UniProtKB/TrEMBL annotation:
The keyword Transferase does not apply. It comes from the Eukaryota. This is Fe2OG dioxygenase domain-containing protein. The lineage of its organism: Eukaryota, Viridiplantae, Streptophyta, Embryophyta, Tracheophyta. One of its GO terms (molecular function) is metal ion binding. InterPro entries: IPNS-like_sf, Oxoglu/Fe-dep_dioxygenase_dom. Keywords: Iron, Metal-binding, Oxidoreductase. The keyword Cell cycle does not apply. Residues 245-362 form the Fe2OG dioxygenase domain. Belongs to the iron/ascorbate-dependent oxidoreductase family.
Length: 416
């Protein structure tokens, strides 16, 4: 869910950048980072061009092996802080998850088949009432330019619950969460099985990540068990998976849009709790290939305002922090703006891209007043933290469903 558009790149020769990322002394160095902060050691020497032809750093995500993650007695606080803390990138990845490589491939290979279905079949998979947050969506979202996004198609579904509720009032009040899944049972029956299998795995691993996040946060603030991220996600019926397919583009399209840091996905901060991501799959003429442009991929805007490329392996599950978790944790876990840059050049012509994201979120009736009634001075948020403060009431309680609908009203069209 997009939340804000961000400014262009900053000066990578600045003292701030050189000190924080390249570990080079500057005339006026900032406050020293925590001892465990070692972003600089994850920077690769790879140079990537941008619109200003200034090389951008590439950072490897913090990684946690699955065998460590599933151990509830393991102390992962240093890695949680390094990935999700105030000086982190807001992302980390889990390695060696059993069955993940095959489940990822099974689902991503179906995205092109879904996009190639006849238009009348895809029309039956659309759900305007949910503002296209269930089923098939193409050209319904807007790019940063305000134009319809025709570059990609999406398929949305809750991988855990087909029918979250039968309450008519709730379905009308929160259609983007309370609606029912729409599966192409006749045209592509494999999709439901593959979507649910991958979504359930990413959710289960995400709960383990949430457990260790709670252990880390509880060291710095008092928190009841039912306020923890793990419990909030366990009782939620709002989780939403999104299978994305980026259509093959001609060379002219890549040359026109390729210089933008967000040419494939606009700058945004996820507004939910925790987002699970797969590495993208690239194909040309249905044959899997490597990404044709080393500059393409996921870009993150750091807390100091710099933009870096974040990478993780194709057999790893990456997790990103959302706005709600940042507020819940009083800033111990931090969300970061991010966007996706498309490949450009001759080698990128005719290449499609598939990926999957699971948005793990609070329930629609989860009360957020105990989160939002904490004022900014208590949360120690800097001016550069992009939380939707203008939507937060001063006294009244707010549910996650109400908060989400307000965001949809702001960034999409209002319900009729």
């Amino acid at each position: 869910m997009p939340s804000l558009l961000y400014k262009s790149l900053t000066d990578y020769n600045s003292p701030l950048f050189r000190t924080q990322f390249l570990n080079v002394s500057a005339a006026s160095p900032p406050s020293p980072p925590p001892p465990n902060w070692n972003l600089s050691c994850r920077i690769t020497s790879q140079s990537m061009s941008c619109s200003s032809e200034t090389p951008l750093p590439t950072l490897r995500t913090v990684t946690i092996p699955y065998y460590e993650l599933k151990d509830k007695d393991a102390d992962l606080s240093l890695k949680i802080e390094e990935g999700f803390g105030p000086n982190g990138l807001g992302i980390l990845s889990i390695t060696d998850v059993p069955e993940f490589p095959s489940l990822r491939r099974n689902l991503l290979c179906l995205s092109s088949r879904l996009a190639a279905l006849p238009e009348d079949v895809k029309k039956e998979l659309e759900d305007p009432q949910s503002r296209y947050n269930f089923g098939w969506s193409h050209g319904k979202e807007q790019l940063e330019s305000g134009k319809p996004d025709l570059l990609k198609g999406s398929f949305y579904a809750n991988p855990l619950i087909d029918v979250p509720t039968n309450d008519t009032y709730l379905i009308q009040r929160y259609p983007s969460y309370c609606g029912a899944n729409i599966w192409p049972l006749a045209a592509l029956p494999e999709l439901e099985v593959a979507f649910k299998a991958l979504g359930k795995l990413i959710f289960d691993v995400g709960l383990m990540v949430a457990y260790h996040c709670d252990q880390y946060v509880s060291r710095g603030m008092k928190m009841r068990k039912d306020e923890g991220l793990e419990q909030i996600l366990l009782r939620s019926r709002c989780h939403k998976g999104r299978l994305l397919y980026y259509f093959p583009a001609q060379l002219s399209n890549h040359e026109e849009n390729g210089d933008s840091m967000s040419s494939w996905c606009g700058w945004h901060t996820d507004h939910g709790s925790l987002t699970g991501l797969t590495c993208a799959m690239f194909k040309r003429n249905d044959v899997e290939i490597s990404c044709p442009d080393s500059a393409a991929g996921l870009y993150i805007r750091t807390r100091s305002g710099e933009i870096v490329k974040a990478t993780f392996g194709e057999n790893e599950i990456a997790y990103q922090i959302g706005e709600t978790t940042e507020i819940l944790s009083q800033g111990y876990l931090c969300a970061t703006p991010h966007g996706v840059r498309a490949p450009k050049g001759k080698e990128a012509s005719g290449v499609d891209r598939s990926t999957f994201a699971l948005f793990m979120q609070p329930d629609w009736d989860e009360k957020l007043n105990f989160l939002f009634n904490c004022r900014d001075e208590k949360l120690n948020f800097s001016e550069d933290v992009y939380i939707h403060k203008e939507l937060i009431p001063s006294n009244d309680s707010l549910t996650f469903g109400e908060y989400s609908e307000m965001l949809l009203d702001k960034y999409y069209h209002k319900k009729t």
